[in-house]
C-alpha cells in the first residue's frame, strides 16, 4: 500500500504498470474508488502508452483518503493506497462552480468573474511561441482562455501542429483508436502552467476547422475520445469543458443526440463536475442551454445588449465568448475597434453576463493572438483588465441587472448591482446628469465616475435628483418625484460609468 | 362660374360664404366633385369660421378641370367652376409616394430619400423662434420634419402654446367641437413655408404629452378632428399623416379600433392618399404595420441593425424616426453622441431603411431643437446632410440590403446596392482589406472610401481579392475562390464606407 501527501485541489497521480498487447485504449478498463469516510468517488484511469496506466485524482477535502483500483486486467486491479490531503497551496481556490444562478465562484467561495481570452491553437505552435503566449498571459489580466485540443485549419492557420493528437499507423494515416501520449503530455503540461497562473482553461473538445480528420471521427471514436479527456484532464482544477467551438457547423456529421451524449460522458467520467458548455456559430443556432447538463450559457453574439434576454431564456450564467474580436483582418467577426470591444465588455457585464476577448490584427507571419497566441498588439486588453480590477474590488454575489430586457431606461443604458455597489454604464450615451438607478434613500455613499477608456476613477459631484415633469403618459402620470435620492453630474461625453458604493 | 389657373400640385382654394348659426363644424356638410375627363374626385370642405367655408384641391394633372359643390346647406350647394392646371412650378415634384416596395418617390418620379428631423412643437413657440427654426431648416439639409398639431407638455416643454387648437367656451374650457381657425391658419402657413423649402411635414395627429385635454377627447371628437385635418390640410403637397407619436401610451383612452378608424377616415377624406404611418413608444408595441392602410413603417427603435427584420416583417418602407437623439439631456432616448447617431443613420440606410434625426442638448431656457426648434448645436446634422448628398448622387430605385438579417457577413457589417452603385458601411468594424459584396465580374468600376465622420471621399486602392482558405465547415468547404473580382485596401479605422460605382 502506497501513501502520498498532496494539497487540496492539487493532482494526485497513481501510475501503474500493465499490459501493452492489443490496444489497451480499447480493451482495458481501469478505475479507482477513492474514499473518505462515508464518501466514495469513482475515478476513471487511462492508458498513457508504453505499458503505463494512470489514475488521476483531485481531492476536494483535506484529511485522509484511501483508494482501491479495479480493472478488466487483473494486473491493474486491487491496488490500494492512502492519501493525505493538506490545505490548499496559497493562491489555489479550487475549481470554478456556478453560484447564485448567474455567477461563478471557486470551490473555496472566492468569487470568480470570468475575463477570458481566446487562443484556439496555441498549444500547437512552436514552443518558443508558446512561451511567449504564457509570458503575455502572465501580464494581461485574463483569468480564462479558450483553447482547443485539436489543431486548427482556417485562414491564417495553415501550419502543421507540433504533434498529432492520435498516432499514425504504418501507412501514415491517423488511427483514432490510439491517442498520442506525447501530444497529451504536452497539452496537460500547458494546462498545469495555466493553473499555476490562476487561469481557467476552457477546453474545446470539437471544432469544424479541420483538415486532418478529427472533425470526421465516428460517433464511437468521439465517445472514447471524450471519455479519455475526462479521465486524463479532469484532475486539473482549472478545467472547463467546452464541447465545441461552433458545434452547429458540425451537425452534418455529429447530430444533436451525439452532442447530448458527449455531455453525458463528461457527467459520468468527470468526478468533479467541471463546468460544461457548448458554443454556437450561427446566432440562430444556440444549443438548448436549458438542458440540465449545461452548466452555463456559452454564446457567440455581437448584439450584447440582449444579454438579459439570454439570462431570462436559459436561467444560467451567460458567457458571451465571441462578441466579435478587436482587430483588422477581413472576416467581419475579427475586425472591430478596441473601443467597441471594451464597450461590449462593459455592456455585457452591466447586464449581468460575462464576455470573452480575442485579438485579430493582421500579422506578416499570421501570428494572430486569437489562434496562435504570441503578443497582444491591441488596446482593449488593458481596459478589460481595468474592468476586471474594478469589479473584483466589490464582487460579492455577482451583478444583477437593474432592469429587465425592456425596462426603461435599462434597455438603452446598462446598469447592475451587487450588494451595496451599483454601476451604471452609459456607453454611447452621454447625459450631463443622471438619477435613475441611484439609491432611493439618502445616505453615506461613495460615488465615482469611471472613464472606461482612459481608466480613471474620479469622485462624482452629487447634485439634486432629477424630478421628471408630470405628464399624461397613457394612464400613468410619470414623475413628479425623483426615482433616487440624488443625482450625479456628468461631463457629457460617451463611455463613462458611475459607481456608487455604500 | 368661376375660372382659376394654378400650377400642378399647388393648392386651389374655393372660398364660400355660408351660414354662421348653430355649429357649422357639426352641422354643415360640404364637398366638391372635381372632374377632369372621365375622372371625378370627391374633395371635402371645411368651415373656417366667420361664415367662411373652404374647399381646397391639389390637382395632380395638368389641363382643364371643373367642379361642383354639394352641401347639406343649399347656400353652399351647386356652385360650379373651372380650373386650368399648368405645369408644376420649378422645384415642385408633387407628393411623396411609396415606390419599389421599400422606398419613396415624388409623384413626378423624382426619388425621395427621407432625411427627417424632429421639432414636435415648433409651431407653438414664439414667432421669432419659429423664424429661427425655418432659417435653420433652410441650411440643415433635412427634407422631412416630424411636427405635432397639438402643443406638447413634457420635461423641457412647460410653456403655453401660442394658440389653442380648439376655441374656449365662456367658462374658459376648450370646446373640442370648435376648432380654432386662427391656430390652423398659422399651422398651415408654416406647412406652406416648409413645402416651398422642399420639406415634407410628417404631421403628428395625436400624442400623449398633454395637459390641456387634447389627449382625452372622445372618440367622436377625435373622428371629427381627423376629418377636419384631412379637409383642411391634404391639399398641401408636402403632407404626411403620422397618426401618433407613441400611440401605445394612449391605448388606455384610444383603443386599437379607434386607431384603425383614424386611418380609415384619412383614406376616406384625403383625396390624394398622402402617406400614413403610426409611431410606437415601447419597442414591444409596434402597431401591426402590415394592415393595408399603413403606407410605411414608422418605428422607434435604437437597435438599428434590425432594420432588415422590419423590412421582412412588414414588407413596406421602414423609417426609424427615433433611433435615439444626439444630445445630453437626462432621458436615455435623448443623449447619444453625434458619432453614434451618424453611425445609426449609416447602418439604417445601408440595411435598406431610413432614419430620423433629433437633437436634445440641454439649454438654459429649454429651447431644445427636438421639441421647440431654434438652432442646431450638435455635430450629427452635418454628417447626415453629407450622407443624403452622397446617396442622392446615385439614387435610382432605392437601396436593397446585400444580405438578409442573418446573412454572413451582413448581419455584422452593413451593405446595400441600388442599380450600379453599391455601398459597404463598416461602422465599428475596421478591416484593413475587404472583398465581400464587391462586384463579381471585373470591370471599369469607380471605387471610393468614404469617411462618414470627416465627410471625405477618396479613391480606393484596388487589391487582389481575398481568397478564403478552404476549410471543412460543416459539409461545406468555404472559399477556395474569391467572392468578388477584386478587393479594396482600407486604412483600418472605424466608421468608413466603400462606394463602388459602375
TrEMBL record, chains A, B:
Gene3D superfamilies: 2.60.40.3950, Glycosidases (3.20.20.80), Immunoglobulins (2.60.40.10). Keywords: Hydrolase. Pfam families: Apiosidase (PF13204), DUF5060 (PF16586), DUF5605 (PF18310). InterPro entries: Apiosidase-like_cat_dom (IPR025277), DUF5060 (IPR032260), DUF5605 (IPR041239), GH (IPR017853), Ig-like_fold (IPR013783). Residues 6-71 form the DUF5060 domain. GO terms for molecular function: hydrolase activity. This is Glycoside hydrolase. It comes from Devosia nitrariae. The lineage of its organism: Bacteria, Pseudomonadati, Pseudomonadota, Alphaproteobacteria, Hyphomicrobiales.
